[in-house]
Amino acid sequence: MTDLAPLFHTHIAERQRTTAEALAETGFDTLVISSGKVYTHFADDQDAPFHPTPHFAHWCPMAGPHHVLVIRPGQRPRLIRYAPEDFWYEQLPLGNPFWASEFDIEEVGTVEDVWKRLGTPTRAAYIGNETERAEAANLELNPAGLTARLDWHRTNKSAYEVQNIEEATVLAARGHLAARAAFLAGASELEIHHAYIQAVGIVDHEMPYGSIVALNEKGATLHYEGKRTMRNGFVMLIDAGAQVHGYAADITRTVAAPHCDSRFADLVDGMVKIELQLCDSVMPGLPYGDLHHQGHLAIAGLLKEHGILKADPEEAVEKGLSRPFFPHGLGHHLGIQVHDVAGRQGAPDGTIAPPPPQHPTLRTTRTIDAGQVFTVEPGLYFIPMLLRPFRENEHKGRFDWKLIDDLTPCGGIRIEDNLLVTPTGHRNLTRPHLPN
């Protein structure tokens, strides 16, 4: 197992550097980040699964609410750990984790004492959702300019972060292999999901996002959340990940069973080739929007090759004929958040670079740069509500509607890998652990 301590030491040194720079640019002396408070459902005593403030997780992988980090340039970061005595919920001792030596750690037993220890630092900014306590401490709440600069720096991953994403990928790949075996044995969506989480060794709330396990036509619902008990599906789309120290892997595969319509199975094979070709194109200096446009052209070419569209790829993309089949962006930044931040930032100060009108759902408009980790996930779907307008407009003759209707029960196809951009190209983090 990789020794994370030296990687984390370098990671924290970089956080110190970029945070000092951001504080100086925005006029603050101190940054206070809390891990956050628990969200309780309205008119209920049940809490939602807790997710720490992402900026806290960027500094410290300690779980649990109400911890506070105090960061001052030139000083060791101070960590005030909330460690209550509690017989209702398990409270684990801190122990000696790999990251602890990077902080001056204080432990207190109540939330009130956490904020008493903090005091009222001057020229201090606060990031988190415990805003009432932060306001009482005279902290400036979630300043946009500072947050934008910190978001910007989160898109370039340290070696520590990449290692965690790779370890999460190993777990997720194990789950995908188990899910594929279950599907080919005739399992239901629910049974496939259970096979996945058992193979990864987690419970549902430990996943970075709810799994998408879609058989047949349900694969055309992009964020399908059902878990039907119908068995012996002919096609499975599974989008599921894992996480390590708060960093996520996000992987999608589409599998056609032997009894699937061979025309749809051929489309699956074609999409696998397109996804790998797009991955091969990734290199620093390429605008991510250009990569997305390449994806649309390639998918339009596949649709023409199989007789679904009767238009050349350039015309199909220009006139929006490929969009109902591929209605989402090609991918997104990946890290502490599955859909990681700053994808549409045009500059560190938070200036927005909107997607072009031709591709409005594009999640990232950044230029690809070394150190970024993002997904490449082209899709091809048969979605009746998106295709419906084309049945009656001036382009209706450019579609083979009989073939579309035949393939609609198969749902859709999405193939997704996670890529690390290197100075000379990229490294696919997914394929070594899940080759197909």
Please characterize this protein's 3D structure:
With 436 residues, this protein is an alpha+beta fold. The chain has helices spanning 4-26, 54-59, 111-118, 131-136, 144-154, 159-184, 189-200, 262-280, 288-305, 313-318, 384-387, 401-407; strands at residues 30-34, 68-71, 78-82, 104-108, 124-127, 140-141, 212-215, 235-244, 247-256, 373-376, 379-381, 412-414, 417-422, 425-428. The chain folds into 2 domains: 4-154, 3-Layer(aba) Sandwich (Creatine Amidinohydrolase, Chain A, domain 1), CATH 3.40.350; 159-428, Creatinase/methionine aminopeptidase superfamily (Creatine Amidinohydrolase), CATH 3.90.230.10. The two termini are 25 Å apart.
How many domains? 2
Structural classification: alpha+beta
Strand order of the largest sheet: 4-3-2-1-5-6
Rg is: 24 Å
CATH superfamily of the largest domain: Creatinase/methionine aminopeptidase superfamily
- What share of the residues does DSSP label as strand, in percent? 15-25%
Gap between N and C termini: 25 Å
What is the CATH top level name of the largest domain? Alpha Beta
Number of strands: 14
Give the low-confidence spans.
none
Shape: globular
Estimated helix fraction: 25-40%
CATH architecture designation of the largest domain: Alpha-Beta Complex
Summarize the main sheet.
Answer: 6 strands, mixed
- CATH fold naming of the largest domain: Creatine Amidinohydrolase
Number of helices: 12
Average pLDDT, all residues: 97
Give a quick rundown of the structure:
The protein is α+β, with helices and mostly antiparallel strands and 436 residues long. 33% of the residues lie in helices and 16% in strands.
